[in-house]
Write the structure tokens for this entry.
Amino acid sequence: MAVDLQARADFAPKRFLVIDDFDGMRKILQELLRRCGARQVDTAANGNDAIVSLTRNKYDIVLCDYNLGRGKNGQQVLEEARQKNLIGAATIWAMITAEKTTDMVMGAAEHQPDDYLIKPLTEAMLVSRLSRLAVRKSALGAIESAVRSKSYLKAIELCDKRLKEEGGNDPYVVRLRCDLLMQSGNHKEARASFEKQLTVRETPWAMVGLAKLFFAEGDYEQARTLLERTLEDNRAYLEGYDLLARTLIQQGQWESAQTVLVRATTLSPNSTNRQQALGETSIQCKDLDMAEQAYRKAVTLGANSDLKTASPYLGLAKVHTEKGNTREALAMLGRLTKEVAGDGVKIQAKAAELRVHQKSGDADGIQACAQELAAQIGKGTDVLPAAEKLELAETLIKLGNKEVGSQLIQSVVRNHHEDGSLMSHAQAIFDQAEMAEEGATILESTRKRAVDTMDKGVRLAAQGDLAAGIEVLRDARALMPSNPRLLLNLAYLLITQMEKAGWHHANAGEARNCIETARKHSTDQQRCGQLQARLEKLGA
Amino acid sequence: MTQTPADLDITTFLVSSIHDMKNSVSVMTALLEDAVSLQKEHACPACSQIGQVFYEAQRVNDNLIQLVTLYKIDQQFYPFDPQEHEMSAFLEEVLARVTPLAEYRKIEVLHECPDGLQGYFDRELIFGTIVQALHNGLRYTHSKILLTVGERDGFLEFRVEDDGSGYPESMLTGDISPNQGIRFATGSTGLGLYFSQVVARIHRNRGRVGTTRLENGGRLGGGVFIMTLP
């Protein structure tokens, strides 16, 4: 009958960290927490101080303002803290914001804080929300740890248990369970769960979940229809926009994808990945101004992050190259090698530099870059994406370095032997260099070798000699390290062997590694999930 | 997408000023809440005035938030985010928000909510609407107000009832248009009602839409504000 004023959590033994750039606000929050019964409250004035505090101490509850002035924002601090394992599954992270923002409707649970608190904060609100979060954390902590260690089957089991205890109602657990079913490759049951949810209510997460299944199965038209319907009623549902853009790209509708991404970035400008996607799509639409704006934003957003990537720098360099701004393009590549670490970055920057010189017609520059790259590739460095490898191959062949050029093309064929459009692109390069026949032979024999090796491995396994099959595929992996079919076949054999002969630590690690690499390259996410689930069952 | 001077009309300034004012008021309310809690301990005579100031500041804050929110909904970039909420917890927070003013005005706040009831809605929008309805009730009631939440015909129904003299006849008939409610002289802008109506209408499920309406009578014999959500 009456509202049950839930038991307050005891805040006295908990350790708090308050992150806010305003001295006044830190004091107000500290005082507020004291009134709620907290005794140990540390403070940090910016992202870097916060990371230091989080490294030194274990906190139970973190209250972090989203807006921290210059430097990292609250979201970046949270992501870095999770990435570096500074906070465990038991830590409560509450993000404080001045108003409700679209970033809060993002949907990607792994990047979300446990709760958002909208200012003005009051004692009653803090006690009520933090108490509830504490209860929820202790109930769901085990599920969360399982998810973080990618033990999806175990996490599903824990969800089932929780739902049974609690009458099947906790909407958070229902949703998480659906996502986990999908992650573990159980599309059939995931679909049934989403559909069951939709008979009760058209929740956007269930609609988008269903759309994800259509997407994964290559049914882009269905995915698109469903997403458009979802967004009609949920105009700020970012996850829906992101998936719709990816769907439209799969359908080759770059202009529509760009419109969708423009809308999404207007709603929420602070996602590096979304700005990156807008940049790439705009380049495809030949809208260089929009591409420049998006990549610039992505570089700025990444500036304070420890997780920055080379992509937006390369994107900006490409825009400058296309616009004929040679100096800016080279300057951007200089910044890239200075600001982003990694050996791969240098090669990617060099390949981009080569394109700058090609555009400006600088013969000496082309020669120098090409030689350097050829030397690196000769050493077996393999970091460039397939399309760039082909582009580079074309240049090298034009400059007379047929050997390294065709070596590059062969590497593309080995890693993507089922991708028809890359094959015809490769053939076109040979045609242009008047090596049509020679090229066709190279392509066919390389492709055949890839297929034969794979068949041989699988055949040996089918005949009962798993170990020999694994050996063959292992050797093949050295030659085609990012071929998704090979990777998944190898993982399959490794897992089958362990299912027969028992757990083998090194082989399990190898299989996991294969699945993770394949997840990045393969469109067959379901098979990835299924293999991962079988692997998890073995270890359990 | 940078704005040219031509794009900067009065709306732009209204919206950005509202934002700015809202931030100032937020700081004021936080400081005032501190002051109020310090006063309590010392039973200072200024206490009741500060309480009143705190309430007025909160009312300004709530109004500004409603304005910004209406603008965002109109421009289709309000981050509408309906979710399941445990109603008892939700009411707890709502009640905590209105208790200081109720205590100051010596008005009893009653509430009813079935155990385990869940509601599906955008937390901030409904929180704002119900707090506003309660504040309104506190102004016009005689001695008590009653907040009830329940399920009726598959809708979630909120009722805010009071024992005051009820709504004027003109407000009870049909839809509430924003202009109809404006009374500059009495301080009633109609904003609250308009806001609640917009908020109700963006809550939809399987072809059904949320509603608001006003009645007189109810269990306490005064005005009744009713909001239903699908």
Summary: The helical segments of chain B are 10-42, 47-74, 87-105, 123-140, 169-172, 191-202. Chain B touches chain A through 42 residues (CB under 8 Å). Residues 82-229 of chain B form a domain with the Heat Shock Protein 90 fold (CATH 3.30.565.10).
